[in-house]
Design goal:
mainly beta; 9 strands; 3-stranded antiparallel β-sheet; single chain; 44% strand; 0% helix; Rieske Iron-sulfur Protein; 109 residues
Length: 109
């Protein structure tokens, strides 16, 4: 599988998340306060909640329902009640296009 265009950079607002679905995989695409673009699994591992509806602060995305914050760099939850990580996907920027391949996760160990 190859990377798929999911949005343009201009569609991403700073410190917000955008939910996209690529080949059946829900992904939260985030532009952090530094302008860096991240892509993590969109479903909170504590409950079936879209993380893209949550709050971006620094390099974290917080689930609006129960408050678990996930690292945009590693996918690991930084506080309870979530204790399982979400996948982190490699992001490629090509001009103004944001590309993600849901079959390629970042090695964050």
């Amino acid at each position: 599988m190859s990377a798929t265009r999911v949005c343009s950079l201009s569609e991403l607002e700073q410190d917000t998340a955008l939910r996209v679905v690529v080949d059946g995989t829900a992904i939260a695409v985030v532009k952090d306060s530094e302008g860096e673009v991240h892509a993590i699994g969109d479903t909170c591992t504590h409950g079936d909640i879209s993380l893209a509806e949550g709050f971006v602060e620094g390099e974290t995305l917080e689930c609006w329902a129960h408050g678990s914050a996930f690292s945009l760099l590693t996918g690991k939850p930084l506080n309870l009640p979530a204790y399982e990580p979400v996948p982190v996907f490699a992001v490629t920027i090509d001009g103004d296009d944001v590309l993600i391949d849901p079959a390629v996760t970042k090695d964050v160990n």
